[in-house]
Design goal:
The protein has 158 residues and is an all-alpha fold. It folds into three domains: 42 residues, no CATH class; 45 residues, Arc Repressor Mutant, subunit A, CATH 1.10.10; 46 residues, Orthogonal Bundle (Arc Repressor Mutant, subunit A). The chain is built from nine helices and no strands. The termini are far apart. One of its GO terms (cellular component) is cytoplasm. Keywords: Cytoplasm. Pfam families: RecX_HTH1 (PF21982), RecX_HTH2 (PF02631), RecX_HTH3 (PF21981).
Length: 158
Amino acid sequence: MRERTPGEATPRDDAIRLLARREYARAELAERLAAKGHAAAEVEACLDALAEAGLQSDARFAESFLRSRLARGQGPVKIRLELERRGVEREVVATAFAEQEAGGATDWFALAAETLARRFSGPGDSPRERARRERFLAGRGFDFDQVRHALAHAWDEV
């Protein structure tokens, strides 16, 4: 460990400052701390201590991230990829999805239909317009079956 000058932030100080604003995945937090010039060994020790104290949790980050992306109308494919890109392990991602779906609040087919109906006023008159709607949903992270369901039911009367 190197000597710190008075007033220089420790990895823990910087991590706490970041975590006060929002949840971070461990890998994401490690990148941020390394970018601030902290040594890799210090960062790892700090992250271990934060996780042990319950201040940083990949599971909590995944749940929070999943809820925020659901509110934006994003599909499961995009959410999974984004979580994995942020360094969250697949098992943690799978657990977060399982817990969300077990709660019964997530119906991907209904979310796809709702997202499509919010963006477009109807199914489209031409094949080109229908393809545009399909691309919109695929870009949002919905799979083929969810896209087909949404195109068939997005404008049904409730």
